[in-house]
Amino acid sequence: MTKDDKAEYILQVARAYFCKIGIHVVSMDDIAQECGISKKTLYTLFENKACLVSMILEQEQEIFELNLEKINSKAINAIDELISFFKYLNDIYIHINTVFINDLRKYYKDSFIKLRKENEQLVELFLQTNIERGISEGVYKNIERKESAIQLFMKIMELFFFERDQEKLRGGDEVEFLGKLLCMWFLKRVPVIQQNK
């Protein structure tokens, strides 16, 4: 196994561990043991846990960006793109462990703020582009207050992704309902399908 392969394997193991039980309770010893390597080898590749967390978040951000691009390129029109986008968000929501988010916020504040800011910028751009696409395709009405609609959606997203309470929302029915609710809101309120005259 090359050095790069080993580093990638460690990142995968650490990501799974962090997502399952949180970041704070997992030590570098735990990660080394789970990977079947010495602590010395782990520290040769990653200076500390903060470096490991930062690398994982960078990878997640790249994956998120690539998936938004895939959704855009595969969608047959703006409505299909928007529905696929919400399905993707719903899938992310189901797999996010609140402990992981809370640990990021508490112990890795700079990384958390960076992740949040980058995600917000990507989603805002995605939604802006989607609205413009829908208008040009003639499936959305010309929306006068696009920015306000996008900002309102961003606030809703922030509440559900970054401010949620794990005890109240554990996934399953609540998450499915959230996905349908957001999709209904966006389809009915922002990209209204024009009626045939």
UniProtKB/TrEMBL annotation:
Taxonomic superkingdom: Bacteria
GO MF annotation: an example: DNA binding
Keyword Lipoprotein: no
Domain HTH tetR-type: 4-64
Keywords of this entry: DNA-binding
InterPro entries (alphabetical): Homeodomain-like_sf, HTH-type_TetR-like_transc_reg, HTH_TetR
DNA-binding region(s), chain positions: 27-46
PANTHER family: HTH-TYPE TRANSCRIPTIONAL REPRESSOR SCO4008 (PTHR30328:SF54), TRANSCRIPTIONAL REPRESSOR (PTHR30328)
This protein's name: HTH tetR-type domain-containing protein
Organism whose genome encodes this protein: Flavobacterium sediminis
